[in-house]
Amino acid sequence: MALEDDDGIVDLLNLAQDRRRESRELLFESVCDLFLRDDARLSDRERSLIVGILGDLVQEVEMAVRREVAERLSRIDEAPRELVTLLANDDIEIARPILMHSEVMRDPDLIEVIRQRGREHHLAIALRQSLSAAVSDALVATGDGDVIEGLLGNASATLSDAAMHYLVAEAQHVDRFQRPLLSRADLPAGLAMKLYWHVGAALRRFILQRFPIRHEDLDDALEGSSLDLAERPPPAAGSGEGLGIAAGRLATSLGEQERVTPALLIRLLRTGRVPVFVEALARFARLPSPVARRIVLDGDGESLAILCRACRIERSDFGTLYLLMSSGGRGGATVAPRRLESLMTLFEQTRPDRAQRMLAFWRRHPDYLDAVERMDRVRLSETVTADGPGLAR
């Protein structure tokens, strides 16, 4: 139908005034054809008017007609953006081909559909080729597990660093995110290791609940398997490792000048050199620095009591170390007598062999320890026992 002649205009006007369904469908198809004609040269005002007409008509024509138009438009790179966007917000049967395939849809258009429409529209968008990080972020923000799982399975979708960190954290509670995350080539090594540790901790709990196996043998196998799967990640930027490295060098220097002893550890605390004390304690007990740091920063004293018992530190030296740690090394905070008495009792009643088992466990990879703690919801001093929490048996 041509609009260059009066007959074409009259025909469209007649169709516009005819309220019968078949006339509305013919009018819809005619206006769509006008939009799609290669030789159409429409002004901004004409395009706006046509979009308005289509918006009024779109719910009056049969779904099959709208679906056919959407299928045609989804494969045309130069299709009118206004019409494509209109159909993208239609029922999912019409919108799906547009949302999955149309190159005309821009990021703001897709994000607006995500905000305004529901799960089925979100799922269709998640399957698009070459999704941008901005659109992926909007999909992740829906919090819908099915949508996120579909997005993770789309290898061509770009995920922002923030989305990756969020989804790895979520995967520790939502098992079905783990496999598609670990299958992604763009998953950073550090985040992959975090997932490996979590999976290892989950497997550890499952096995210990069902099979009689020594904790040490199982931990050896799980820790080794995780390290075989990926290289250890470098320290995260801004994690305070710069201070730790400097303190470690100083502790090494001190260790070369004199052997690390309980007396040296006490002297370091009394002179306020807490970072150096942490590194010296790590060397004394042969612990990873992050674990030694946690023992010091936790402040409850129970982990320190177990460590001192395992390393055969004298009772009086343990008490001095705990009091100095609690006061920051130079006085200040005081310890309630009842609390100190409780820790001294724990120190005395903890058998050295059990304390040494705990220390051996703490010497494992710090990320593996973190995963076990989160999985079992226990503190550092409760992470491994033969008979449940507590070592004083």
**How much strand?**
under 5%
Binned, the helix content reads: 55-70%
Radius of gyration: 33 Å
Poorly predicted residue ranges: 1-10, 230-244, 253-258, 385-393
What about the largest sheet? none
Order of helices and strands: HHHHHHHHHHHHHHHHHHHHHHH
Structural class: mainly alpha
Mean pLDDT: 76
Based on Cα principal axes, name the global outline.
elongated
Count of DSSP E strands?
Answer: 0
Number of DSSP helices?
23
Q: What distance separates the N and C termini? A: 93 Å
Compile the SSE list and pairings:
Layout (H helix, E strand, L loop, with lengths): L5 H12 L3 H16 L7 H14 L5 H12 L6 H8 L3 H10 L5 H10 L2 H8 L6 H9 L3 H8 L8 H11 L6 H5 L6 H22 L4 H15 L11 H17 L4 H9 L3 H12 L3 H10 L3 H9 L4 H12 L10 H13 L2 H11 L3 H11 L17
Helix pairs in contact: 2-3, 4-6, 5-6, 6-8, 7-9, 8-10, 11-13, 13-14, 13-23, 15-17, 16-17, 16-20, 17-18, 19-21, 19-22
Features:
elongated; disordered C terminus; 393 residues; 23 helices; mainly alpha
Please explain how this structure is put together:
By secondary structure, the chain is mostly helical. Among the domains are: 1-105; 243-382, no CATH class. Helix content is 67%, strand content 0%. The chain is built from 23 helices and no strands. It has helices spanning 6-17, 21-36, 44-57, 63-74, 81-88, 92-101, 107-116, 119-126, 133-141, 145-152, 161-171, 178-182, 189-210, 215-229, 241-257, 262-270, 274-285, 289-298, 302-310, 315-326, 337-349, 352-362, 366-376. α19 runs parallel beside α21 (337-349). The relative contact order is 0.05. Mean pLDDT is 76; it is low at 1-10, 230-244, 253-258 and 385-393.
